[in-house]
Amino acid sequence: MSAPTPLSFERPIFDLEKQLEALEAQPSPTAATKESIRTMRTELTKLRREIYEQLGPWEIVQVARHESRPQSLDYIELVFDEFVELHGDKAFGDDRAILTGFAKLDDRKVMLIAQQKGRNLDERQEHNYGMAHPEGYRKAMAKMQTAAKYNIPIICLIDTAGAYPGIQAEERGQAYQIALNLREMSRVNVPIVCVVIGEGGSGGALGIGIGDHVAILRFAYYSVISPEGCASILWKHAKHADKAANALRFTSADLLRFGIVDEVIDEPLGGAHRDHRRMATLLKASLNEALRKLSEIPADQLLDRRYEKFRRIGQFEESAAS
């Protein structure tokens, strides 16, 4: 994998890395050079930590969309074994924006539902930039019902800017199918673990997001609307996306505080795009722990807990003046 392209706030990090590379490339470094290398490595670690601990919401969106950020196919390769893809919705076609199939997580059989964006133009066109049509959500739901039939837990990896908003998708019942998925996922009587690995956009994410354990990577976001969409509505121009991002409160820290997610999975220093393998290790550990805990809960209690979990989201208190 090629070196990640620096984001604007990462440029001090990349500048220091170049200086470090130049020192390390010297064929016969002196004692002073070796000491400079050690000092610079310490400074680099400190700089990465300082920058990433102070990221604002709009900067987090940029990290979540980073071209080198690991996507679902990367995690399928690094986290799971024996992935056997299942195609089609038995009604219209095979939507490649959502990948489904049997997989193994260590010794545990799982049904994997994963949104895939793609990196280069060919991949993005194949996967429709991760924006699913109704047949994608129908495929996902059918595979979840298969998993329930054979008592196999379900893992959903969420990474989409939203469901596809085209005319054809609306004609084929986009809103209806997402709503149907919300209802039916609440009834699936096996453990469901959902993880937002990048973008969690609107109903497109929620269509595979009803789970017993909902987690999010530290520099991912989960929102009712994209910052650009919100800015276009409220300020009549997408250039105010940074202002919208601040208002939407969709970062992992916000979501954990509001009780919308159950866990924030930390990322390697400098973001997941810096170290795919380390990120995969952290994700795998989280998935194993979540499934271990959920496997101990009887099916009837599992459904009751899931229902109550989502009923609690969106509660508010009226002000004293009302």
Can you describe what's shown?
- It is an enzyme of class 2 (transferase).
- This is Acetyl-coenzyme A carboxylase carboxyl transferase subunit alpha.
- Acetyl-CoA carboxylase is a heterohexamer composed of biotin carboxyl carrier protein (AccB), biotin carboxylase (AccC) and two subunits each of ACCase subunit alpha (AccA) and ACCase subunit beta (AccD).
- The protein has 322 residues and is an alpha/beta fold.
- It has two domains: 46 residues; 253 residues, 2-enoyl-CoA Hydratase, Chain A, domain 1, CATH 3.90.226.
- It is 47% helix and 16% strand.
- It contains 14 helices and eight strands.
- Strands 1, 2, 3, 4, 5, 6, 7 and 8 form an eight-stranded mixed beta sheet that branches.
- A hairpin with a 2-residue loop joins strand 2 and strand 3.
- Helix 1 runs antiparallel to helix 2.
- The longest helix is centred in the first third of the chain and has 23 residues.
- It is globular and about 65 Å long.
- The chain starts with 10 loop residues before the first helix and ends in a 10-residue tail after the last helix.
- The mean pLDDT is 92.
